[in-house]
Known about the structure:
Layout lengths: L1 H20 L5 E8 L18 H13 L1 E8 L11 H11 L3 E3 L2 H6 L1 H6 L7 E3 L3 E2 L11 E5 L2 E8 L13 E2 L2 H11 L5 E6 L4 H7 L5 E6 L16 E4 L6 E7 L6 E7 L8 H9 L2
Parallel strand pairs: 1-2, 2-3, 3-4, 7-9, 9-10, 10-11
Antiparallel strand pairs: 1-12, 5-8, 6-7, 12-13
Amino acid sequence: MLKFYKFFLLIFLIFAFLNCNKQKIIYNYSIIFTGNTGGFIEHCVCKVKRGRIFERSYLINKIRNISNETFIFDGGNSISSLQIGRVKLLRLMEFMGYDAYFVTAYDYKELPKFYSQEIDGSTLLFSSFTLLAKNGKRLFHPYIERNINGEKFIFISITGHTNLPNYYADINLLSLENSLKELKLLIKKYDQVFLITDYPEIDDKIKEYKIKKIKYIYHLDKIKKGEIPKAKDKIKILTLPEDGKLFWQIGFHDKPNNEEFGLEDVIIGTKMDKKLKKYMESIR
């Protein structure tokens, strides 16, 4: 009898241990997004070191573990060969669980061969509303849809801002005005719009064109300190200070319009994702 008692005690302790270590689900859905990382996977050379990809992955995994569902994307200006080969960086993002990458006009102008030839077979969805082929068709998925808490969300990227005359003359771009005209018609069948952009003036243009349903704007180029949006804000403005050294998380509970915002600091001293580091060392 004592033998069976010890056996059942062992089973109980194992069960208790597993449940103690199982993280509680907090969010019904989480949106996680980065941007402007510029190809850097190591800490910045700053007074306070931030931004390494291994710490970022660890923090993303923590959020994923407390969320029923996630949508993880990069807003653009992040795939580069400054520190690591572009294809290798893409493999790392796939391993981390990124779902999508929104290609900016700057991305495409700088790396047309990569975006036309080297992303085939990737598990990431590549999207841009404004990048066009010579025949006028869009080069990537024009937008990405997600169902969040029973609402239809559309994630859409409108880019092409520059202060340099004729900088984008060699690529085909849908203008800001035409993009917004098309957007106004497109979003009628959606509940919420998440807009990714590098146009600083887009806020005023949205009012001018009387475009409704835009709930979030992620500004890639707006010079503004990253601040948690207020509940009363009709449009939640999101920016990333420190150029990719932090990232955003929006956690949704079980009801619409019941979200929490987190500006996650990828600071030195955070635990790292050892599996990602090992994976990076294994790929060429």
